[in-house]
Structures are given as structure tokens and as C-alpha cells.
Design brief:
elongated; 6-stranded parallel β-sheet; 14 helices; binds 1,4-dihydronicotinamide adenine dinucleotide; UDP-glucose 6-dehydrogenase activity; 14 strands; alpha/beta; 8-stranded mixed β-sheet; binds uridine-5'-diphosphate-glucuronic acid
Length: 430
């Protein structure tokens, strides 16, 4: 099939390269000329394992990129993979989606024949039908359900394993309101589903598909927060939370994934998506108490970590090493990283902060140029009065002699990754 993808970021580039891999002809439309040139040169504009190889193999053949929305006219379906950030009050900010829909609608005005527009971005229920579809109709002059249809196909990939997650999904969710839209979506996904060993395909309505994405992210975020709540109780009793959580994970109704207790969840999606669905729920008159509690527990974890530090040392004037600046291991992404509230609280407390991350230092430095950065964990620990472990980079588990070079070896571990031993004043958050 001929497919177009609007937006060539984490999601847009990954799905474009993977759709090309399963046999479709794909064109990426992005307003960023550098991204377009990079893709056309056969390079991936983002770093994801396996993506470079796919882009190198298919660019110039089944995969190309352009800044010209007119390219969508030669395709059967367009996926909108544009950012959906948060407004200050948590509501979803649809301005980029609306701009993309306007450009797409204008381009479709000159298309002969049917076109399917699929929302790939995470959007609150009814956005596709009540916000995107009317813009498409107005700009294209076409009629919904006749010349143009809309669909919704939520994405569940994780940063750091995007290609693998997309090509081997746990499920594929296809939201549509007409048989023609459902058929086109099936045609798009059939080759991927066959190659992925037949994962379940959930055919549903458009608003249901939109809600499934928030339910998925909300549930996972709440699962981590519940694990943190339980781990905090364990800590107060002096009970080993890891033993408790790994035992409950053996119950197949609970499952062991996403029970990792610690300093909490961050990243470009959980915080904004949980905030957006809470705001949307309130707009329709429902108070989502569980999701609000998930946020509250998450916000408390960094505060608790600092409380543990204060049990050993007053941060005022102390040199504190922050190990891990990325929002999770395996990425240089620092958006909503748990290191952010910690560094801010340490600066407020007049601490002398030195940060270290294997790959995310430059991104963090852009936000916090005022703190010191080290080139290795050893350098960050050298002469420090305390260390806070914020991201569970596997290499932190191997740190050992480096702790002996601290002025006082106080280690407050927010991810339970450091190996405790004699000679370290070890304190875990949970
Ligand atoms: N990043 C992730 O791991 C996941 C993201 N999502 C959702 O997917 C959506 C997209 O997210 P990302 O790919 O992370 O965004 P991103 O920020 O990485 O990429 C967005 C791309 O859109 C381009 N763009 C902006 N305005 C445009 C316009 N008017 N026309 C054409 N291109 C335009 C930008 O230049 C950029 O390349 C969001 O709704 C997000 O919540 C869903 C699952 C996973
Ligand atoms: O909508 C999205 O964009 C994506 O959001 C998350 O993916 P991602 O943010 O890339 O990363 P995760 O691996 O889910 O981690 C999110 C946060 O939770 C934290 N986490 C994760 C697991 C755990 O057990 N404990 C825990 O604290 C991580 O440290 C990280 O800060 C979801 O896992 C994806 O399914 C979804 O598509």
C-alpha cells in the first residue's frame, strides 16, 4: 500500500521505517527540513536500536521524506504522528494536531478518490471525530464517511525498544466507524500482524481506541505508584519491598512487569498523558480519584528520597552527586526525568550539585547549566558528601571502589541498584 506519515519524530520515523520493512511504500511529511534531509540520506533522525539499519535499507526505495504535504495525495492513508503536549493545567494541547490536520485537509482538496486519515498520536476521547474530522472536511471540501474517513490507531511502543515493540506488539488496536476505514486499516496491518506471529487485533470504535491508549498508560503509571505505595509501607516496617513485590508479581492476575518501586515514573508520555486524561475526565464531570492518587504518590517519591538524605546530612553547602539524569536507562531523554525535581530541591537547599549520566548529560545541561557535570560516575563521587541514585543504569550496579573516594560515603539509592557493603552508609528509598 501507499502510506503517508505526518510527523517524523520517535513514533513517525519508527512506524514509517517499520511499515516499509513489512512491504508498504511510505512517505514521511515533516516541517523540519533537517529531519527530511537526514531521512532521505538514509539516516535515522532519532536514536533507537535497529532503526538506523531499517532506514538505511529502505530510504530512497520504499521510504522517503518530504516537507510537501502534497505527497499525501499519492497515498491511500495518512497517519498523524504529531506531538500532543500538555497545557499548564494538564489539558492536552491540540494546536500542533490542528495545524497538521489543516495542512493535510488542504492537500487532500485536490485528491481524487477516497482517503483514510488515522490518528496515531495520543489524543483524548472524541478528538479525532470532533476536532480533527471537522478540520479535514472544512479544508478539503470533502464529506466524512464518503470521500474521507477517519480512524484511530494508538501506539504502545517504548523509547529504547521502539522498533522491537512496533514489529512485535502485544496487541494492535484499530479504531474506525465505517467498514471502508476498518478494511483499509486491516490492509495496512495485515503484513505486520502476519510477521509478528498473529498478536490480537482489537477492532473497535474511534473514541474507544483513543481511550484504550490512556487506559493503558494510566494503568501502568498507577501500577508503579501502587508498587511505590506498598514499598513505602514496607520501608516503614523495615520489610524488604523487593521480596514483597516480586512475590505478588508471581500471581498471574498481577504480573511482575512495572512493579519496579523507586523514585517514580517520568518521561515524555506517562506524566502528560495521565495529566491529560485527569483533566479530560474532570471536564466531563468525573473525578478520577485513582489516577490523581497515582500522581500524588509519584510526586512524593523524590521528596521522600531527599528526606532519606536529610537523615544523614544537611544538604546546605554539601556536595551531592546525582547519578542518572535520563528519565529511564537506555535513553538520553530527560523530559520529566525524576532528576529534575531532585536537582531543583537540592539547589533550593543550597547544595553543591554534580550530575552524571552515561548519555543524557548534554540534554540535562541545556535545562540546568548552573550545576556541575562529571564525565564518569567515579568523577561525580570523588569528594562528594553524598550521592543520590536516580536512574537505574545497569552500570551503577558495578560501582564499588568509587564510593571510597567520597568525602562521606552516604549513598541514597532511589532505584535499589547499588550493591550495599561495609564502608558505605547505604540508604534505600524503598
Ligand atoms: N515517544 C513515544 O515513545 C511515544 C509517543 N506517543 C505519542 O505519539 C505522538 C508523537 O510523539 P513523538 O513521536 O514522541 O513526537 P516527536 O516530538 O518526537 O515528533 C514529532 C514530529 O512532528 C513534526 N511536526 C511538528 N509539527 C508538524 C506539522 N505541522 N507538520 C508536520 N510535521 C510536524 C516535528 O518536526 C517532529 O519531527 C504523541 O501524541 C505522543 O504522545 C505514543 C507512544 C509512544
Ligand atoms: O505512550 C508512550 O509514549 C509510551 O509510554 C511508556 O513508555 P516510555 O515512557 O518510553 O517508558 P517506560 O519504560 O514505560 O518508563 C516510564 C517511566 O516509568 C518508570 N518505571 C517503569 C517501570 C517500573 O517498574 N518502574 C518505574 O519507575 C521508568 O523509570 C520511567 O521513568 C509506555 O511504557 C509505552 O507503552 C507507551 O507507548
Amino acid at each position: 500500500m501507499q502510506l503517508s506519515i505526518v510527523g517524523s519524530g520517535y513514533v513517525g520515523t519508527t512506524i514509517a521505517a517499520c511499515f516499509a520493512e513489512v512491504g508498504h511504500d511510505v512517505v514521511n511529511v515533516d516541517i523540519d527540513e533537517d529531519i527530511v534531509a537526514t531521512l532521505n540520506d538514509g539516516d535515522a533522525p532519532i536514536h533507537e536500536p535497529g532503526l538506523d539499519d531499517l532506514v538505511a535499507e529502505h530510504a530512497g526505495d520504499r521510504l522517503r521524506a518530504t516537507t510537501d504535504y502534497g505527497a499525501v495525495r499519492d497515498t491511500d492513508a495518512t497517519f498523524l504522528a504529531l506531538p500532543t503536549p500538555s497545557e499548564d493545567d494538564g489539558h492536552i494541547d491540540l494546536s500542533i494536531m490542528k495545524a497538521g490536520a489543516r495542512s493535510l485537509g488542504a492537500a487532500l482538496a485536490e485528491k481524487d478518490g477516497h482517503h483514510l486519515v488515522v490518528t496515531k498520536s495520543t489524543v483524548v476521547p472524541t478528538t479525532t471525530e470532533e476536532v480533527i474530522a471537522p478540520i479535514l472536511e472544512e479544508e478539503s471540501g470533502k464529506t466524512l464517511g464518503e470521500d474521507v474517513d477517519v480512524g484511530m490507531n494508538p501506539e504502545f511502543l517504548r523509547e529504547g525498544s521502539a522498533v522491537e515493540d512496533f514489529l512485535s506488539p502485544d496487541k494492535v488496536v484499530l479504531g474506525s466507524e465505517t467498514e471502508r476505514a476498518a478494511e483499509t486499516l486491516r490492509d495496512v496491518f495485515d503484513p505486520l500482524v502476519a510477521r509478528a506471529d498473529d498478536p490480537p487485533v482489537v477492532e473497535t470504535g474511534v473514541a474507544e481506541a483513543e481511550m484504550i491508549k490512556y487506559a493503558n498508560n494510566g494503568f501502568l503509571a498507577a501500577k508503579i505508584s501502587l508498587a511505590n505505595d506498598i514499598a513505602n509501607i514496607c520501608k516503614e516496617y523495615g520489610i524488604d519491598s523487593e521480596e514483597v513485590l516480586s512475590a505478588i508479581g508471581l500471581d498471574h492476575r498481577i504480573g511482575s512487569a512495572f512493579l519496579g518501586a523507586g523514585v517514580g515514573w517520568g518521561g515524555s508520555c506517562f506524566p502528560k498523558d495521565v495529566a491529560a486524561i485527569i483533566a479530560a475526565a474532570r471536564d466531563v464531570g468525573y473525578d478520577p480519584a485513582m489516577l490523581e492518587a497515582a500522581v500524588e504518590v509519584n510526586d512524593r517519591q523524590p521528596v521522600r528520597l531527599l528526606g532519606r538524605l536529610r537523615e544523614h546530612l544537611d544538604p546546605d553547602g554539601a556536595r551531592v552527586a546525582v547519578l542518572g539524569l535520563a528519565f529511564k536507562p537506555g535513553t538520553d531523554d530527560v523530559r520529566n526525568s525524576r532528576a529534575i525535581p531532585l536537582v531543583e530541591a537540592l539547589l533550593d537547599a543550597n547544595a553543591d550539585v554534580v550530575g552524571y549520566d552515561p548519555v543524557a548529560t548534554e540534554n540535562f545541561r541545556e535545562k540546568y547549566p548552573e550545576i556541575e557535570y562529571a564525565d564518569s560516575a567515579g568523577e561525580a563521587l570523588y569528594g562528594a558528601d553524598a550521592a543520590l541514585v536516580v536512574t537505574d543504569w545497569p552500570a551503577f550496579a558495578d560501582l564499588d571502589a568509587e564510593f571510597d573516594a567520597m568525602a562521606t560515603p552516604v549513598v541514597v539509592d532511589g532505584r535499589r541498584i547499588v550493591t550495599r557493603r561495609e564502608g558505605i552508609v547505604y540508604e534505600s528509598l524503598v
